[in-house]
Design goal:
The protein has 134 residues and is mainly beta. The protein is built from one helix and eleven strands. A hairpin with a 4-residue loop joins strand 7 and strand 8.
Length: 134
């Protein structure tokens, strides 16, 4: 079984930065990609970014492109989300999730919607709160 633990959330002013971490433990050989999702009160969970374990291919939601950067350290089994130029609308609980199946990472389907489908992920962390407010 794979366990995921998020850290790094907090309160930050608009325009500020935070770096989230997602540490994997347990059966760390059992995932092919890790994604970040977020959920604001009253809104559905949405995909923010994703990175594949082997090749480091990255995907981003349009709302965070150019501001957020996802990266991985396979030796530490940790995925990071560097968030810059934060906006109040980035306020949410951020979750990381792992996909235990290999996907067609270069397909139009995966690039446009596959990576952000919550059903594709079978291990989830408990989340970390990010609040952007002055």
């Amino acid at each position: 079984q794979l366990q995921l633990v998020e850290s790094g959330g907090g309160l930050v002013q608009p325009g500020g930065s935070l770096r989230l971490s997602c540490a994997a433990s347990g059966r760390t050989s059992d995932y092919y990609a890790i994604a970040w999702f977020r959920q604001a009160p009253g809104k559905p969970r949405e995909g923010v970014s994703c990175i594949t374990k082997t090749d480091g291919i990255t995907y981003y939601a349009d709302s965070v492109k150019g501001r957020f950067t996802i990266s991985r350290d396979n030796a530490k089994n940790t995925v990071y989300l560097q968030m810059n130029s934060l906006k109040p609308e980035d306020t949410a609980v951020y979750y990381c999730a792992a996909d235990s199946l290999r996907r067609p990472y270069s397909s139009k389907w995966y690039i446009s919607e596959g990576w952000r489908t919550t059903r594709a992920y079978d291990s989830w962390g408990r989340g970390t709160q990010v609040t952007v407010s002055s």
